[in-house]
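Page 47, continued from p. 46.
Same chain as before, 180 aa.
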Amino acid sequence: MTSAQRSYNMSRIRAKDTKPEIVVRKYLWSHGYRYRLNHPRLPGKPDVVLRKFRTCIFVNGCFWHGHHVVCGEVQGVQGVSEVQSSGCCKIPKTNREFWVKKITRNKERDFKVQQELARMGWHCITIWECQLKPNIKLATLEGLVNTLSKIFLADHRIKKYESEEPELCMVAENTIEYGN
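Result:
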């Protein structure tokens, strides 16, 4: 591809309403979960926000968010990074330094956003694009529903409080027999 064709292709990639997001949203909706999309008041504008569960779901593309990519500086060479990737994400060979910096920034931003949401009391779930491949999609989505159920049960369990008062005896314990 020429650089103009590559630029055009990259400009067509959307940030919202991607196919993986729609798969997750349709599954959640069909199982009775109601949500908000890209909530503007929350850090990072999560893809799916479930208020009832205090949970944010991020549906990340493997390339853009560096799934299984480990970046590190090469010793002795400034500005060049060593990149180890496996499976679903590969860094382009052209303009490699740019892509390594961009993906590293994205990963750092994702980490900070999730930390901030956790400090605010929100649960964060990340679903990767490769986890929605046809052969494992159902298992991933069922796992998501199970996780949401566990979160709900943990947040809404009945808490037992220990009282510092001495136990009071019931009035019925000291009954008087009548009629004898």
